[in-house]
Amino acid sequence: xxxxxxxxxxxxxxxxxxxxxxxxxxxxxxxxxxxxxxxxxxxxxxxxxxxxxxxxxxxxxxxxxxxxxxxxxxxxxxxxxxxxxxxxxxxxxxxxxxxxxxxxxxxxxxxxxxxxxxxxxxxxxxxxxxxxxxx
Amino acid sequence: xxxxxxxxxxxxxxxxxxxxxxxxxxxxxxxxxxxxxxxxxxxxxxxxxxxxxxxxxxxxxxxxxxxxxxxxxxxxxxxxxxxxxxxxxxxxxxxxxxxxxxxxxxxxxxxxxxxxxxxxxxxxxxxxxxxxxxxxxxxxxxxxxxxxxxxxx
Lengths: 135, 153
Hints:
The complex is a heterodimer of chains A (135) and B (153). Helix content of chain A is 34%, strand content 36%. Chain A has 4 helices and 6 strands, in the order ααββαββββα. In chain A, strands 2-1-6-5-4-3 form a 6-stranded mixed β-sheet. A 6-stranded mixed β-sheet of chain B has the order 2-1-6-5-4-3, with helices on both faces. In chain B, a hairpin with a 2-residue loop joins strand 3 and strand 4. In chain B, helix 1 (3-25) runs antiparallel to helix 2 (29-35). Chain B has 153 residues and is α+β, with helices and mostly antiparallel strands. The chains are: A alpha+beta (135), B alpha+beta (153). Chains A and B meet through strand 3, strand 4, strand 5 and helix 4 of A and strand 3, strand 4, strand 5 and helix 4 of B.
């Protein structure tokens, strides 16, 4: 069925994008996002907010500085409807200061013409502050 | 399953999720029970005071604490739902006020798993930092009194 193959294609776009996000590979990430791509980190953590194309490189820079080896993402489940792809994932990482950063993610993606147009991330905001803004 | 079956199942799951959230908002115990399986699991991911995986009496216990600290509940507004096969995601925002008069306005992404038309698991992703900021102090007092009650006479 045409719709099912389109949903599978959207899931594959998200898988590829996440692979490059995990490795913090900027040039490869850029190939898989739309020109108006936005990422929203939900909640009241120090990373909370909406980042557009102008702010995204600075966000990646901040993530790379704190998590120099990136985040190893294990995808637990992925499903799709229309242009939405939902991904449940477990992350494993160690901060530059040696703290474990093992967050759980539920991410809502919107895919347009084979590229990720937006990404809304829900995760443990308390853990974010403990690692990215230690007291 | 045909395309129509799949669409019908997604519609039915969205309707069940809507009924569950309405029942939760109005503290309607029988209404909640009608939508969930006997072995229903509630999970709050993360490291906040509400985090963990709970079933049966543990859910009633934590619900009792939340009702104390948010006496008027949380008014939920559902924004969107996405469904495929036996799972569904619901994006919602909540508005509430703590017993101490502080605002408690959350943004939720719920993951629901279905079995036999009923909800078997609900995973509640939210701002865990806000949970601890607004509910943490009272939770620690509540947990300590619970432990005290459990001590042998």
